[in-house]
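Note to self: keep these together.
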Amino acid sequence: MQELTHYINGEHVKGTSGRFADVFNPATGELQAKTPLASVAEMENAVAIAAAAQPAWAAVNPQRRARVMMKYVALLNRDMDKLAEALSREHGKTLPDAAGDVQRGLEVVEYCIGAPQLLKGDYTDSAGPGIDMYSMRQALGVTAGVTPFNFPAMIPMWMFAPAIVCGNAFILKPSERDPSVCLMLAELLEEAGLPKGIIQVVNGDKEAVDAILDNETIQSIGFVGSTPIAEYIYGRGCSNGKRVQCFGGAKNHMIIMPDADMDQVADALLGAGYGAAGERCMAISVALPVGKDTADRLIEKLAPRVESLKIGPYTSGKDVDFGPVITAAAKENILKLVQSGIDDGAKLVVDGRDFSLQGYEDGFFVGAHLFDNVTTDMDIYKKEIFGPVLSTVRTESYEEALKIAMDHEYGNGIAIYTRDGDTARDFANRINVGMVGINVPIPVPLAYHTFGGWKKSVFGDLNQHGPDAFKFYTRTKTVTARWPSGIKEGGEFSIPVME
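Structure:
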């Protein structure tokens, strides 16, 4: 049985609390490792080391800090296969999907190479008589992030790369369900030239999170996870005077207009709804076809595609469509919500409840499910399922479909499929959702834009990565300066002459 560690001050450090969390192989259900759960004292020690190391790192000029990120990109590319395999082993997602997880984080690191430009301040000369004004972006100090199981490489890099290149130290509390890749990412950062103590990986549960929230040295906290925990961290963090950005749950819709190419729509829904076993905060979990004919054609095209999905462990090769969910508890919750949909009267078009994979009967595999005739009062519509379940809510008009999406409490991502530019433009302007796709099923912005939802999908006023990250991880200081000017009394500038 492997015992994982924390990563403190450049070294793998065993936990001392005596408490551990189980790390499973989701494909087999086997317990493969134990990860230590930090005590308050362990967290405080990690923070103290980070605080001691941070001032010297902040004093390094932005160009040299950016060179560390440049080297880090090369190392991530070098170890891509190794990182993807470690990620798949603990999370269960397919190897291509795991490599994509690392790649989308790497792209944020690439963006951070532009730190010298992104950290430039503003300057105004002669703002007043002999007065100049200028602003500086300066590091916060020690920052922290609490990251989820579903993207164990991407989301940590979304947080720590901009935080560190801005001159901060960073405390990473990864998910205790799949922490190994975060330990590897920290090692690579120091191989790239990051000084010891600037990146600290402290594994833990609520006790460790509360220690972060209550630690006076930590200046900011980032979080991605469920909405109830996002609300908790945001409230407690803000009350302790910290800068906090929290990203919560989602229920992402796709509106399908009658003029849409139905083969294109079915293929898009297949990947967006079932990829990564639905364990994505940007997964499409609700299809909103407009009109009976559109709905009928959608189900006709979609059902055989869903039935033919290949489910298996990441070791089965690159043609596997998706793997298991993260834990037995997650599987149980998904199947419970599927049963609630049946009980509430929704039509289960594709039934994956009896899915079983020979040789992997103890794994956390969930078959693909497709519902039709779902209504907005059903739990299967209202709740985030986080599994391979797609619900079809039939609508009679574009306005009805738009209203359904706008009325939902979550506002993370949404898409529309149409060939009509006027409809698409109206949709993009009116929808109250943070990330919008037009004939794009999962509209995750690239690294140089920002990622963030609306409504109960987000708590805080700045998004992740892109320009907002450099605002979140720095403070602006404005300087007003006046220097004595003019000719000092007694100065003589005329040509001397003999008297």
